[in-house]
Amino acid sequence: MSKLELRAASGLAGLYALRMLGMFLILPVFAVYAGHMPGGENHALVGLAFGAYGLTQALLQLPFGMWSDHVGRKKVIYIGLALFALGSIMCAMADHIVWLIIGRAVQGAGAISAAITALLADLTREENRTKAMAMIGGSIATTFAVSLVAAPKLAEWIGLPGIFLMTAVLAVSALIGVWKVIPNPTISRFHSDAEANTRRLPQVLKHPQLLRLNYGVFALHAAQMAMFTVMPLLLTSVGGIEVAHHWYVYLPVVLVGFVLMVPAIIYGEKKRHLKEVFVFAIALMFLAQLGMTLWLPSLTAIVIWLGIYFIAFNILEATQPSLISKIAPTEAKGTAMGVYNTCQSLSMFLGSALAGWLYQHYNSATPVFALCASLMAIWLIVSWGMQPPLPVKTQMFHIGEDWTGSASQLSAKLGAIRGVKEAVVLIEERVALLKVLQEGWDEAAAQQLIAETN
Hints:
Pfam families: MFS_1. The chain has helices at 3-24, 30-34, 43-71, 73-93, 97-109, 113-123, 129-180, 201-205, 208-237, 247-270, 274-294, 299-327, 333-362, 366-384, 407-415, 443-451; strands at 392-398, 420-426, 431-437. It is mostly helical.
């Protein structure tokens, strides 16, 4: 990667990580602290406040991404960060749970993830795009792990309002960083590999394999939000641990989850057993949620089930985007990821809202975990019939700006190269998208053909 690309990728990865702080930092402490404010005795309202962020994210992230095609990436990012900061301040100043719900909704309205991805695509060459996207993925995973450990101690020092004020300050800092650090793109155009296209939505929404994965990310994150709506309460009431010390539990289980995820992913990708690893992780997640439903008498049991949960969660969180990339039609990868991310955001709202209602109605965490176990059981059934993905990866090549040849003929020539499973030339984007075997494909032949266009 060039210095400019590295600067853009690292800066936008940091920006994306900051954006996720709005959800992750409050994840392990929200239920306890929100429960102590006026109106917080109603757990249904606490659940709504917890998940309101996800609802506005789901409604606005695709429209904001498309809006950035017309008004400019940075303008949309500035507006999104300003909304995020405003919502954070509203949450910090909230004196009733209803105002906290409104503030969380405003936070989520700053839905800039699609605009960030589009800007990253503008600022990176096709051959480096995958590396840049991986940097964003790594920043999200790191933010999640750090937040689970740091949030309980932060909440002890500055309280939940202090955490919201901190995220507001960071959002303003990020806005300045976008202005001063992130380069302005020379050319801004639509990128099928990174952005959603409304014309391709029917193709994606009717794709049976993608539908399985969309349900999967919905189930995974609905269960995550539902679990964290009640888990902090259980660690305090059943485990006897003060909120400030909840990280004693989260740190070891998160570390174990990350360590055991690595060999599972390597085995799935390198040995071509990705479906088996994927289905095994879903079964493991079902076991964890069923265990929480049936047997949660002590802190030891909580730690055991949380440990199993995080092993499964980390594997699933890492494998699902890889499966999307392998399965989605080459020209609709960005649209498939957009739908996938929307399902994830919507599930955050529904999972926490349902969990809050169940806890309020039954005064017990058992129905919440039963809901999570049911989601996992359905997912296990749905994923069982999934077709094993081909061992492929996506390769992108730039088409010369002055090239005036036939896109269909070039697509056919590229598609005939050994190891190429799909080839699409999108002349309006000046790019050739290839889905190729991970090993043994004739890259030199493809480069020779592409060189003729430059």
